[in-house]
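Progress against Task 2.4 (sequence-to-structure conversion) is shown through the following example record, which the project officer requested during the mid-term review.
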Amino acid sequence: MSFRRNLIIVVGHGLRSDALSDAEVWPVHTPNLDQLCQKSLRLIGTAASPADPQSVMSLITGLHARQHGITTPARFQSLNREFAGFPALLKDSGYHLVGVGNLTPLIEQLDVAIPVADLSVTDPSQCAYLNTAVQHGCLETVLNQRKQRAMHGPFTTEQQAIEPDHDIDHFISDQAQRALENMPSDRPWALMVFYSGPGNNLPAPRMYDDLAEVDHLGSDFVPANFSQINQLAELDYPRVALQRLTRKKIGKIRQDYLGRVSLIDHGIGRMLKTLKTRADHHRTWSVITSDRGCLLGEQGLVGNRSFLAPALEVPVIITPPTPARPRSADDMVSTVDIATTIASLAGCDLPENMPGRSLLPLIMGDDLPEPFTGLISEFAKRLLLETERYKVVFDTEHRQAMGLFDLLNDPNETQNLLSSPVSTNLLDALRWRLADTLMPLSAVSV
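Structure tokens generated for the chain above:
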């Protein structure tokens, strides 16, 4: 038992894959995440759902939305424990489980929990972070930030900056570091860290709030084409808010987002430094990913309820204790593969209902053994199929295609091919691919 793998599992909220500086898209560096990428497996995963809370539930349970049927966090409590995802599998295998952050979906499985409540909570007695804010004398400022966020989303310019030590994600990093120091040495353990950001629409704290120039960050912004908007997204914010967007406003939204990414990167660095001091670091693996991505002005949109790549694509970083040859595989993977991979790392017996594939063969440089038919993602009445080249979006209520994109010739997804001469035959072929992808998914009672 003492020689089984330990696990550090870090989950961001709304962390886009291209937010890491190894993607060379943004002018902000993430040195600690980049360091992991240089000695591990670096993948780009497709979120099984870009809508909250389905996205995090799919990641935890290893099930698609149509399988777990969860639309609110409270419904998770009614799930049969057989389908409670990788935390239950680890628990049944003898792991000591510690969680830090927003733990609502998995708290019943944890031996030790440091819960941080949802941002809608304002009562310090219900949240360890808010209770600490009282002690630091900054509760009023924190609550004002949350009030601004609830009223204006990321669009407000009236931001009250706080010190990094008082920020919610810094608090989560601090508690995770302390938990790591106190992990047992006589049994396998897993530390699960669920960050609040970077996609929580909170302003970046001081020192992280001006890492890049606003004008530069918003220079490529193009206003939304509202005649095409229904094909691209279900709006998270009123149209009037999007109509008022400017390059400067988008630059500020991106600046705040990247500042929060940098803050989380710093926290991950602290955890890695603490891990090195432990005697069992040589058998500790880390998995870093996110529940979903988010839109930061792409095609004039802000939010996450979309199948555009920035809302779907998340980082997947699997790092062994001994540095491996860096590998950035092009395999198409889903966030439902994360639960299966974590369970495989721990040597758990996998339930038959989990559709995800273990990604461990990719670390060895091998191919995934299962035949690939396509990736699906869904929310509300929208269903996406993504293949090696094409992306097609269906309206499941009316059973009609809403969008068809050629990712090879149009990687930014600006040209909808539904009205093109090739669409009919292409859609027929993609419907067959969708059927092959959906058929193995068995229904789960909740």
